[in-house]
Amino acid sequence: MLAKRIIPCLDVRDGRVVKGINFEGLRDAGSILEQARFYNSEMADELVFLDISASIESRRTTLEEVLKVSGEVFIPLTVGGGISSVERARDAFLHGADKVSVNTAAVNEPELISRIAERFGSQAVVVAIDVKKVNGEYIVHTHSGKMPTQYEAVEWAHRVQELGAGEILLTSMDRDGTQEGYDNEILKQISTSVHIPVIASGGAGNLEHLYEGFTKGHADAALAASIFHFRTYSIRQAKEYLHERDIPVRL
To answer: Which of 110, 151, 176, 193 could form a disulfide with 156 if both were Cys (CB 3.0 to 4.6 A apart)?
Structure first.
């Protein structure tokens, strides 16, 4: 069985790491470089760098910061926010990204997924899917959760897989920052109906939540921010906890 991954996420705005609740009420969570160095030393499996206001502000990701981070970490780095063309994806790779994450641009222009995958390989394309429950349905949202789309989450997950996505980053907007646990209902629906890896995101508040994301949600990786940024737990603690409960992890 493939090892399950633990992935800290740097939500970046105005040159700092930030963290909010339900995509709102952002608070400072430290220096980008200090957090990146910490996660590298902690042997996180990967690191995600999301410029959370790039799509809203119709600009490209802050690649100077990406370059600084890539120079400090020796683990796979995924970069997202404002990746709206093959050229912008290329720029991110040239600045040290191993993968790019697309969300808003992919909904606006689904074929972008295929074009990036054809140019750089499916393994380099992560499609971020931000979902919110609306009238009992999980609806995909864009622009950092500001705009609902016509897509239902499972339907969109199947579509991005067909278009060549190598991985899905699934974030529950309802759970984001609440530390109440992942939304394992939609996580399981998607994880068990696609054959590409699915990363759980939104709601991790303790180590049991990570465990449940893998066992109840069938996720391939667990992304978390608050519990690691504010040092509630270390990556090592998380992995040891999971290992003791028979979840395969890299120690």
So the answer is: 151
